[in-house]
Amino acid sequence: MKILFMGTPDFAVGIIDAIVNSGVGQVVAAVTQPDRPKGRSGALAASPVKEYAVSHGIRVMQPAKIKDKTEVAALMETGADIFVVAAFGQILSREILDIPKYGCINVHASLLPEYRGAAPIQWAIADGKKYTGVTIQQMNEGVDTGDIISSVRVDIADDETGASLFDKLRDAGAALIVDTLRQIENGGAGHTPQDESRATYAKILKKEMGCIDFSRSATQIERMIRAFTPWPGGYTYLNGRMIKIRECRVTEHSGNAAECGSIVSVSGEGIKVACANGDLLITRLQPEGKKEMTAHDFLLGNKIEPGVILGKK
Fold first, then answer.
1. How buried is residue 41: exposed, middle or buried, by Cβ count under 10 Å (0-12/13-18/19+)?
2. Please, where are the H alpha helices in 195-261?
3. Mind listing the pLDDT tens digit for each residue in 23-77?
């Protein structure tokens, strides 16, 4: 089986690597996003998938607009039997979907139809889900709306972060894609339409979403901080300066009513902040322009009195 792979970030590298090492087929080309400026220097940087493909001698294609006629023609010329897509970053047209013999399949990091869209890993944690998974779907012109070919469930730990769940789902997806490709080639793959009544959408993450709203419950905030690790993270402001909250835990209210966002107490354990329901004990943080540290170490060099309000820039 000749396979054309489409993907861009680290998650996709785990998928293409599993295909290459499984011997399930020949990866004839890797399609990924064009090189983008990165860092303060603005120097162009290759995507993780491009770096992988180059290191393994796989042809690289980087269309700015994959729907352009010249790009569609180039896809046809690869002679691939199937297109495997994993976090590519561009929408495929019907013309492209119809090119390969077995169509186009997508590796998506949720149990569809839940969490369609750009950030399924993070929102599953933020919403307090006990499990999520990976789905391989036959692509159509909608966003993650195609028939389900296969799926696998992955449990979400109580201390799960976006980074740790990313690793779990990447590994689960890598194993699933190999098994699914074998089923497709042998004619044993099934197709199950998605239940539209259960569909949810995982909206794309933006930096401002990490700004903590202490009028929410402590449980919601703690989940959000874990979900948004490593990016965009959870942050607030102390005396006008940003502080990133790296680790925290939920505690019961200290007893006295306090304004949401106000510091209730400081101790060797950390900084306790009042929320709408419960308090949030901050145990690790990163002040603006400095390295990450424990709350205890931060308090050694910063005198903070109870009653100070966090969140005001």
1. exposed
2. 218-227
3. 999 999 999 999 999 887 889 999 999 999 999 999 999 999 999 999 999 999 9
